[in-house]
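lol forgot to send this yesterday, sorry. struct tokens for the thing we talked abt
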């Protein structure tokens, strides 16, 4: 199975994700609760932006980015 790496990690690392972030993303990608959270956030973004056609991938990546940023904030419970 190919490793899952978000667009955000790919871009922030200059195209070479760290092994720690790569293994974390692989674990999260296989986690049904993570996919559900990202899907719900992506749907909310889609609705907030007026339900545009053809932006599902953009919304998914934005949702991942937002959730990962929230988790990395000090005081995060996860």
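and heres what i got for the seq, position by position
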């Amino acid at each position: 199975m190919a490793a899952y790496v978000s667009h955000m990690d790919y871009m922030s690392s200059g195209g070479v994700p760290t092994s720690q972030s790569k293994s974390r993303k692989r674990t999260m990608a296989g986690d049904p609760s993570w996919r559900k959270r990202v899907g719900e956030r992506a749907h909310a973004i889609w609705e907030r932006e007026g339900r545009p056609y053809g932006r599902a991938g953009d919304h998914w990546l934005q949702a991942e980015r937002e959730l990962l940023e929230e988790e990395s904030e000090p005081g995060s419970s996860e």
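The helical segments are 7-12, 19-29, 32-48, 56-72. anyway ping me if u want another try
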